[in-house]
Amino acid sequence: MRQFYRYMLLFLVIAFLAVFLIGPVYTVVEVGLDWRLLGEVFSNYIYVEGLLNSFCIAAVTTLMVFAISLPLALLYDRYEFPGKNWCNLLMMLPMILPPFVGALGFQQILGHYGVINTLLASCGFEPVDFLGGRGRFWSVCFIEALHLYPILYLNLVTALGNLDPQLNEAARNLGASWWTRFRRITLPLMKPGIFAGGSIVLVWSFTELGTPLMFGFNRVTAVQIFNGIMELETNPVPYALVVVMLFFAAMMYLAGKFVLGRNAANSTVKGNAGSAARPPAGWRRFLPTGVFALVTLLAAMPHIALIFTAFSLRWYGTVWPEHFTLLNFENALSNKIVIPSIVNSLRYSVLAMLVAVATGVLISLAAVRWKLRGSSFADLLAMLPLAVPGIVVAFGFLGMSVKYDWAAEWFNPVENPLWLLAVAYAVRRLPYVVRSVSAGLEQTPEELENAARNYGAGPWRVLRKITLPLILANVIVGGLFAFSFSMLEVSDSLILAQKAEFYPITRAIYELSQILGSGPFIACAFGVWAMLFLAATLAAAGAILGRKIGSIFKL
Q1: Alpha helix locations (H) across 365-446?
Q2: What digits encode the pLDDT tens for the residues 362-383?
Q3: Which residues contact 500 (CB under 8 A, 6 or more apart)?
């Protein structure tokens, strides 16, 4: 009887994911997988250019991320240096702000009369058009790389921590150079971490909507899909665009899996070999600290620019704002969409957190503790949001509300998107909960639970009194990630919130940024509040998980 109820719970979880994860994807594919529509996409040079630009953004951003993350991970793993204990927490700094919000502040640095061009003009050089032509492309790649490199860095640090240092020592004793050891030993054994982080970065940057939208880069597939929403009932081409994006995202993921993931099972685990990190001699021990500080400062540039913009009265053709003021914060509070958007985001995110935690805990228990048949399938479904582009899921929910009567009644983005956004947020953030709770269960021995059962405790009592208290920290971390990232979700918010009275925070920031004159300054003030909120959340999660926080971003 106990197993029957467990299987019933697992069935409900799988049904939930089938409806609200597979359902949106199926809706998009059913409509968009039309050869006439697909032919129209590939015969229109504007759509083809959008795809090529998306590919180029993904490739360049991923290369930038590797160039930043790999040296940092090697330094962290191989050396002891002052401030090392703070490094992983500092590496999370770029994630306290969605890149499209950071783009608001970055425009003050890269604009025609921004900080960099002001410095160039003072040195007698011509201004550079960073936000127009090809300069816009590189600006989008740069700001996305600054936001995404922590995902790869944390996975690489975890992968390096699982390698046996005795392999490198044996190769060194046999006369192998540093480059040979890195190329023949370290890099091949890091393939699981490279794939786990690199595939997320590649797909994320390929499907990113917010950053190109804020920079006015309209010849990108994600932005073309967003711009096509308003004429969705008369022009189904956006469905085909989403299908094409989903197909190429899946191909990129599978290509990475084929190239990097084939030998994942053969990775050597460190076990009890101990750490190989050693302090550099003399003044060199400060070099890793300097490198981390430099990268952290670079990654913090969008946040610093956002803060300065929020407090500035005028910032035009100068290195620093001419006057500082609190007027932007006052105007933000008095704007009619700001306070309601905060309340809306809290409602959506709390519901999303509750749904994600309940679903994630059940999946983790079924897979790790109960070991039910079908639990691995449920775990795979829960991880799909990391591989399926967020814009695909969001667009699919919109398509469901248009196509199905039951969805239009309960999940109508025009009348009231409360449950629509809550479920969409929960599905997108479910992987963080599952990985966090599963890690806690795997690290918690079953002896206490078995002892309680031997003394006559029932399954519910064991779960409530033993299991859940032991993994409470992991549940809290998963819930924190689900809540905080839901508060600042971009794709779902921009696509599914269509009335001002239902705008969440990110949609409100976007709408404020479009107001001529003081709009961007007010949006930056609003963004500062959001940044502080998410910073506190990530600091709490980092303090609880430490370097294991990288497991949150594993496929």
Answers
A1: 375-387, 390-403, 405-410, 418-443
A2: 998 888 888 888 888 888 888 8
A3: 336, 337, 511
Position 54 pLDDT exceeds 90 = yes
Which residues, including other chains, have CB under 8 Å from residue 524's CB and lie 6 or more apart? 104, 105, 306, 307, 309, 310, 328
Position 289, amino acid: T
Which residue type occupies 397?
F
Q: What is the pLDDT of residue 262?
A: 53
Assign residue 81 a region (left: φ > 0; alpha: ψ between -120 and 50; beta: otherwise): beta
φ, ψ (nearest 5 deg) of residue 111: -65, 170
CA–CA distance, 545 with 356 (Å, rounded to integer): 19
Q: What pTM was computed for the model?
A: 0.78
Q: How far apart are CA 268 and CA 417, in angstroms?
A: 48
Question: What is the DSSP code (8-state) at residue 321?
Answer: -
Pick from 275, 266, 288, 259: nearest CA to 194: 259
d(CA 328, CA 104): 14
Query: Is there a contact between 331 and 338 (Cβ–Cβ < 8 Å)?
Result: no
Inter-residue contact 24 to 392 (CB < 8 Å): yes
pLDDT at res. 352: 92
Instruction: Locate all alpha helices (DSSP H) within 455-518, ordered by sequence.
Output: 459-462, 468-470, 472-487, 491-496, 505-513
d(CA 163, CA 159): 7
Q: Residue 79: helix, strand or coil by DSSP? A: strand
Q: Which helix (H) or strand (E) holds 312?
A: strand 312-314
Contacts of 444 (CB under 8 A, 6+ apart): 467, 470, 471
